[in-house]
Design goal:
By secondary structure, the chain is an alpha+beta fold. The chain contains four helices and five strands.
């Protein structure tokens, strides 16, 4: 049975390992610049900059979802921005991703959010079909990034 819970500071090793795992999955580990100390400071203090949901099956970590909050002046409300969704290969196909996404929805609604946004690679057809099955809609927009610190 899949259970999903909010990560705590005692999960920092797990959270960091999952961040590295998704980066490696996408062959982008060179872009991970954070470390455990930064994650502790930014995510588990009095005013956390992000949240993490951890999925477990029979007490074993199966995957995670990380998120931040933004405000939309057009919506007039806050919304959740999902950063990462990752499920270990051996747990895929067991509704772990679905449980993570529905828990994210519950967290968003409980915090007064009205929308969840996230990115997906255009060629990741399996993920796109998965998100569409959940009832999400894909927006095709250009995404710009302006790195100000090198």
């Amino acid at each position: 049975m899949v259970t999903v819970r909010e990560a705590t500071i005692s999960d920092i090793d797990i959270v960091y390992d999952l961040i590295i795992a998704i980066a490696m999955h996408h062959e982008q580990e060179q872009y991970v610049l954070t470390n455990k100390q930064e994650l502790i400071k930014s995510g588990f203090g009095n005013n956390p900059s992000f949240g993490v949901l951890i999925a477990e099956i029979d007490g074993e970590v199966a995957g995670y979802c990380s998120y931040t909050w933004n405000y939309s002046i057009w919506l007039g409300s806050s919304y959740m921005n999902i950063d990462d969704v990752f499920v270990w290969q051996i747990f895929r196909g067991q509704q772990v991703g679905e449980k993570l996404m529905f828990k994210a929805k519950d967290v968003c609604l409980a915090k007064g959010g009205s929308r969840i946004k996230w990115e997906v690679e255009q060629g990741n057809h399996g993920a796109i079909k998965f998100y569409e099955r959940l009832g999400a809609n894909i927006d095709i927009k250009g995404l710009f990034r302006w790195d100000l610190v090198s």
